[in-house]
Structures are given as C-alpha cells and as structure tokens.
# Entry
Amino acid sequence: MPRDGAIIFGDIESKLSVLKVICSKCQRRGHYIVPRLIRAHGRDAKIIDWVDVITADCPKRIANNMNDQCGMRCPDLPKAL
# Structure
C-alpha cells in the first residue's frame, strides 16, 4: 500500500503502547493497544484510514456538514513522531 506521506502503525510501534482517540465535539473517546492494531491491520496500514473506520457511525460524519465535522483526533501522535 503506498504511504503517500501518511502516518502508519509501524511509525508508532516502538513509541506508543496505547493509541488514544478523542472527539472534541461529541466527547467520544477510547484507547487501543498498538500491538493489537498492528496484528489486526498490519504495520503498513495508515492511521487515517483506521480513524475513518472507527468514526463511520459518527453522527457528525454521517450528516456530512462541512461546518460541523467530526472532531476525532489522536492526541498522542504529535508527541510520538
């Protein structure tokens, strides 16, 4: 899979043991064990593609309102890179 400059799970494999996700708009949050994510999706899987999957049922994303989009973020990513 071409990387296209995206962050992949392999980039955080040795830097984070848990990947946290938080939505600033709806207060959805969770944490995912990085080795499990790598086993499930592969080291070369793009994190942004995975975020799209876990936010597929987000009401703000489903509404497709460009002025009120889903606010899901991975706050630990900037610190890990």
